[in-house]
């Protein structure tokens, strides 16, 4: 009963928290001779952080406030986004701001046209949006020139990039998608919390009504291996099916079920029902997480002529990022397993906190609420 009350209290506290999955911007650029046409999308929450559009300070950004701040937003983007052709600066002009609703919230959509002094062979992009405001921010680029499509991840340590518009290198494409996969799993806190919820009890055994620490490393390693393998296999299947346009699910449904999966996995640590078959939970819900991973690929686009290699690189990036997290967290968890603090505090209270945050996400995603 005490644990249930604690969970309810945490859920109430979580109402003040935002389900902030890492900050992403979306940049499209279609090259046609000396001209580039495209759009930049920034989450409204990021726009507020960058230029302060909430005029009445009520904690909500209305369409009227965003529209009024359109010129200010355009100026901000102009100061933090530069395009060049063969090293020569292009002149940017912007259309009035619009709204685009994505599963993680509303985005300000700013169409632009860049006029360059020469026909574009190599396009340089200098991207410093949200620099100094949110270190997690990355810009996902989709660059097209005729039927040739390239992608890139902008921002962070890589603020300047150069692209040969008519001859993308296969190795560059592979590296870009590999990096995108790593960044997506590291920035996708919902995916990591689901995995963490399943791994927290991996160093324990359920005996009767109590958790007991494993006495040897082998059972814990086997449990971890089963969970990670099941999750990897499941999300790889649905990621491939969705990325190749074989099977699609509505993003709102997918993201809502992902939030629900975190709640189920976390509550199972507090009120254990499934103890020895957590890999089944990992596989079942991993299928839905694969559709979530596919959403970023749909935003980036799979380049023609390199669909398979891009998909493999992106999935490999997810696995590398996931493995890095597991190798970082699990030795610490294994070292702490013997103490009562781990079994009576970290496991139940940590799981309750995870479930509470996921509940906020579920309400936001399923009901389109702003909590």
Principal-axis shape: globular
Radius of gyration: 22 Å
Order of helices and strands: HEEHHHEEEEEEEEEHHEEHHHHH
Number of strands: 13
Q: Unreliable segments (pLDDT under 50, ≥5 consecutive)?
A: 1-20
Strand content: 15-25%
Structural class: alpha+beta
Structure description:
The protein has 371 residues and is α+β, with helices and mostly antiparallel strands. The protein folds into 2 domains: 2-17 and 188-367; 24-168, no CATH class. The chain is 53% helix and 21% strand. The strands form 3 sheets. Strands 1, 2, 5, 6, 7, 9 and 10 form a 7-stranded mixed β-sheet that branches. Strands 4-3-8-11 form a 4-stranded antiparallel β-sheet. Strand 12 and strand 13 (210-213) form a beta hairpin. Helix 7 runs parallel beside helix 9 (278-300). It is globular. The two termini are 27 Å apart. Residues 1-20 have low confidence and may be disordered.
Which key features would you list for this structure?
11 helices, 2 domains, 13 strands, single chain, 4-stranded antiparallel sheet, 7-stranded mixed sheet, alpha+beta, 371 residues, globular
């Amino acid at each position: 009963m005490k644990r249930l009350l604690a969970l309810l209290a945490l859920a109430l506290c979580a109402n003040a928290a935002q389900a902030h999955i890492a900050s992403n911007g979306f940049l499209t650029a279609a090259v046609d001779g000396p001209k580039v046409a495209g759009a930049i999308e920034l989450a409204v929450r990021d726009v507020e952080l960058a230029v302060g559009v909430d005029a009445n300070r009520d904690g909500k950004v209305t369409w009227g406030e965003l529209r009024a701040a359109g010129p200010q937003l355009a100026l901000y983007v102009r100061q933090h986004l530069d395009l060049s052709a063969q090293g020569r600066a292009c002149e940017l002009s912007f259309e009035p701001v619009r709204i685009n609703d994505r599963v993680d919230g509303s985005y300000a959509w700013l169409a632009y046209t860049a006029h360059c002094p020469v026909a574009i062979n190599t396009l340089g992009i200098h991207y410093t949006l949200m620099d100094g405001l949110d270190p997690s921010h990355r810009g996902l680029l989709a660059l097209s020139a005729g039927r040739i499509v390239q992608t890139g991840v902008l921002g962070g340590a890589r603020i300047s990039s150069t692209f040969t518009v008519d001859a993308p290198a296969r190795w560059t494409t592979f590296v870009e998608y590999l990096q995108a996969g790593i960044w997506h799993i590291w920035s996708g806190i919902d995916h990591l919390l689901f995995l963490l919820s399943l791994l927290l009890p991996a160093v324990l055994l359920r005996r009767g009504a109590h958790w007991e620490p494993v006495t040897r490393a082998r059972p814990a390693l086997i449990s971890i291996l089963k969970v990670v393998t099941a999750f990897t296999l499941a999300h790889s299947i649905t990621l491939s099916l969705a990325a190749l346009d074989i099977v699609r699910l509505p993003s709102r449904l997918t993201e809502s079920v992902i939030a629900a999966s975190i709640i189920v996995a976390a509550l199972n640590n507090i009120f254990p029902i499934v103890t020895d078959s957590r890999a089944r939970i990992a596989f079942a819900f991993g299928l839905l997480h694969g559709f979530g991973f596919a959403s970023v690929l749909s935003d980036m686009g799979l380049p023609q002529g390199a669909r398979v290699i891009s998909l493999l690189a992106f999935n490999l990036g997810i696995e590398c990022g996931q493995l890095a997290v597991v190798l970082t967290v699990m030795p610490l968890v294994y070292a702490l397993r013997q103490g009562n603090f781990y079994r009576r505090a970290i496991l139940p209270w940590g799981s309750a906190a995870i479930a509470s945050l996921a509940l906020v996400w579920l309400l936001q995603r399923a009901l389109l609420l702003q909590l």
